[in-house]
Amino acid sequence: xxxxxxxxxxxxxxxxxxxxxxxxxxxxxxxxxxxxxxxxxxxxxxxxxxxxxxxxxxxxxxxxxxxxxxxxxxxxxxxxxxxxxxxxxxxxxxxxxxxxxxxxxxxxxxxxxxxxxxxxxxxxxxxxxxxxxxxxxxxxxxxxxxxxxxxxxxxxxx
Length: 158
Hints:
Blueprint: E1 2-7, E2 10-18, H1 25-37, E3 47-51, E4 64-70, E5 85-89, E6 92-101, H2 107-117, E7 123-125, E8 131-134, E9 146-156
Antiparallel strand pairs: 1-6, 2-4, 2-5, 3-4, 3-8, 6-9, 7-9, 8-9
């Protein structure tokens, strides 16, 4: 099921991975270690993945992915610029698709939204990136599955 929702703007720290989307663990590990030292945990912040390239259009070795963590208000970014990068994620209208399965099948979430739901809706995707809110750690899931809330940026069809 897909729901339409509004997201606020988020300030995030991120680590970029270039290569296969199946190998983003290194970026997540680096970000996770840094975030933990700052007291940024899944209990008080969001961890968000951003797949910046379409794997069907870009060679696997060149795909870009940002592993992000939201920052609390007043976070002093200038003290941390050597460990991570920073960006602002745009708020606005998004389609929310909740996914729970193994990471190797996550591409199906994108296919469901872009291939099935979107063409039959009153919306079209806009140019903001999709946001993958990581809602669990697959390594600690009893079935090894990931729970991801996929947010696809929308605008009304013209």
